[in-house]
Amino acid sequence: MKKRGKMPKKKKSKKIKGLTIQFIPYIEIERLSSGERVKKILNVILGNKMIILQGKLWPEEETRLIEDTMAMVGHVKNFKGIELATINPNSDALGFFGKFKHGLARALGAQESITIIGPASIVREMKRDPKKIEVMMR
Amino acid sequence: MKILRNFTKRMFNLFFRRRKEISLGFYGPPNGGKTTLANRICKDWTGEEIGKVSKIPHETRNVQFKEEVEIKYKEKNLKFKLIDTPGIATKIDYEDFMKYKMKKKAAQKRAKEATKGIIEAIQWLDDMDAVVIVVDSTKNPYSQVNITIVGNLIAKKIPVLVVANKIDLKKSDIKRVEAAFPEYDVVGISAKYGKNMEEFYESVFKLAKMA
Predict the structure, then answer these.
(1) Cα B160 to Cα A125, B24, B99, B185, B206, distances in angstroms
(2) Would A71 be classed as within a structural domain?
(3) What is the pLDDT of residues A50-59, one digit of tens each?
(4) Does A130 fall in a domain?
(5) Fold classification of B21-210 (topology level)
(6) Domain tally for chain A?
């Protein structure tokens, strides 16, 4: 009988083995209040999933999302925050921030934008420019 | 001539003396140079600094302000309340602070304070008469934090001036910042070395007129 050598211990890999991306259509958030929208997003994020949201949050909702996120960092285990990026259609026509000033961000209708949100424990960084979003994973 | 002079004086009073002082906030992502700029202004006009600066992000973790800062520009005087706010971010990881040789406990404490500081900065938005958004001109200006801040200021009808800081660095790209904020006055400065501060003060006075 051959003597079996000791099997080398497998190193624990910190790399993500799989990633769930949840799509939230605009119709799902359309009738929700700002608080409910933020709550819905954070519930998905806390499940370690990424979100592709059809549409975007209003600026006041984004600050609410940041506030609620910050309130949870340090209180929810392994939660470090979020990464998010929104891309708007034809954003180069008026300039990225120009739209806000012209009030077109609202007039265009929120559902024409795409928002990507991910937990910071999975997403290291989101790089964006007016035409693309790069998602860098941990 | 006298009527015209009186009219001008009345308009001047209406615009500039209706408030005791203008609340001018400094907002932006962490490490953009908000405190360095606020310190520069305070040193220029009061001889004192407003807060500590550091290479480690989130050095400013509380809203700090300096009242009755009187700035003079071309024979005009304006009184400001300068409000320096913590950098706004969407994530805080204490391990990031440990990369700067900080011990775990100190890093965790810093992270906790930083999260509170971000919430405080957002809550102060309502109290501003005008805001200077300070961005690092060596970095991508299209960050979501910048979009969120600008979007909120527009919704609250608060006038904005964009400062492209760190123009002394080789990687600085003011044109990129201007392209990202085409509707706003963008001033390139080096708060650290006091470069182009004259143009900055000129823009602050323009901003104050809108406040």
Answers:
(1) 27, 10, 34, 8, 10
(2) yes
(3) 999 999 999 9
(4) yes
(5) Rossmann fold (3.40.50)
(6) 1
The ranges assigned to domains in chain B are 21-210
Is there a contact between A85 and B111 if contact means CB atoms under 8 Å apart? no
Quick check: is A5 in a domain? no
Burial of A90 (0-12, 13-18, 19+ CB in 10 A): exposed
pLDDT at A104 > cutoff 80: no
The DSSP annotation for B97-111 comes to HHTTT--HHHHHHHH
Residue B20: its pLDDT value, please?
Answer: 79
CA distance A46 to chain B (A): 14
Distance CA B83, CA B35 (A): 10
Query: Which residues in chain B touch residue A100, judged by CB atoms under 8 angstroms apart?
Result: 150-151, 154
Quick one: pLDDT band at residue A10, thresholds 50, 70, 90?
Answer: low
Does residue A14 lie within any of the structural domains? no
User: How, if at all, do strands A21-24 and A50-54 pair?
Assistant: parallel
Between CA A68 and CA A88 the distance in angstroms is 24
Q: Does A34 contact B at CB distance below 8 Å?
A: no
Residue-wise pLDDT for B105-132, tens only, equals: 999 999 999 999 999 999 999 999 999 9
Query: Taking Cα atoms as reference points, which of A133, A121, A109, A14 lies closest to residue B142?
Result: A133
Residues of B in contact with A96 (CB under 8 A): 142, 147, 180-182
pLDDT at residue A89, rounded to an integer: 73
pLDDT tens column, A45-97: 999 999 999 999 999 999 999 999 999 998 999 999 999 999 887 655 445 55
d(CA B176, CA B84): 25
Q: How many CB atoms lie within 10 A of CB B38?
A: 29
Q: How far apart are CA A33 and CA A55, in angstroms?
A: 15
Minimal CA separation from B92 to chain A, in Å: 6
